[in-house]
């Protein structure tokens, strides 16, 4: 989608919000839209339009852009503007390096064993697979992995994972028409959760490690073909 296509939603979200005029808030709004797959790699983020829609100053928006650039989800091109980033092969490797630490550690040392949200994400993924919705399968997969990190009970780790998942959505954009990529991971999520629910955290974390290595290899291969 383009920026113009999501403007009505942004206007409604801003109208319903009570926020301080901060770059952190503006960055979170844009990050959420990218994580939801509503802004594709290459989409231009026009300053004057976003300032109007979000109700923030140009300086505040530029703070938000600087934050998102540091997270590698937007790129500023001199004399052209700010664009949603197209991740490189090195970006994919770094994303998965971070994910292996975050997700395996959360499964191993989590403080929260309530897994209702994880079961719901798997059910959502299965329903999307039945319907043939690749975007919904990707969204359900994102929700599952965000839920895994949430088991750690850390707001800081949740924020870091939200940044990682925003980048992941941009990586997944190249797989948008390929249901064969997303579908098998739904049942792998289920196996990981089954072992966690059974109290076998070490096996659950090990399965996650294998899962992430395989996913990284597939995405790198797809990136090389694109």
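Sequence proposed for the structure above (226 residues):
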């Amino acid at each position: 989608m383009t920026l113009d296509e999501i403007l009505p939603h942004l206007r409604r979200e801003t109208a319903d919000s009570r926020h301080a005029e901060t770059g952190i808030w503006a960055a979170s709004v844009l990050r959420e839209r990218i994580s939801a797959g509503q802004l594709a790699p290459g989409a231009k983020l026009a300053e004057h339009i976003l300032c109007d829609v979000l109700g923030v100053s140009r300086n505040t928006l530029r703070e938000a852009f600087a934050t998102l650039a540091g997270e590698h989800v937007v790129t500023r091109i001199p004399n052209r503007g700010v664009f949603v980033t197209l991740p490189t092969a090195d970006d994919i490797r770094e994303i998965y390096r971070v994910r292996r630490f975050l997700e395996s550690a959360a499964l191993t040392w989590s403080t929260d064993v309530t897994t209702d949200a994880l079961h719901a994400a798997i059910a959502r993924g299965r329903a999307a697979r039945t319907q043939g919705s690749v975007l919904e399968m990707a969204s359900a997969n994102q929700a599952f992995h965000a839920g895994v990190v949430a088991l750690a009970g850390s707001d800081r780790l949740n924020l870091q994972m939200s940044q990682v998942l925003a980048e992941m959505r941009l990586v997944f954009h190249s797989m948008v028409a390929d249901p064969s990529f997303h579908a098998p991971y739904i049942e792998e999520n289920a196996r990981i959760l089954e072992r966690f629910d059974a109290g076998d955290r070490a096996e659950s974390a090990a399965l996650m490690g294998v899962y992430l290595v395989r996913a990284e290899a597939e995405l790198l291969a797809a990136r090389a073909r694109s």
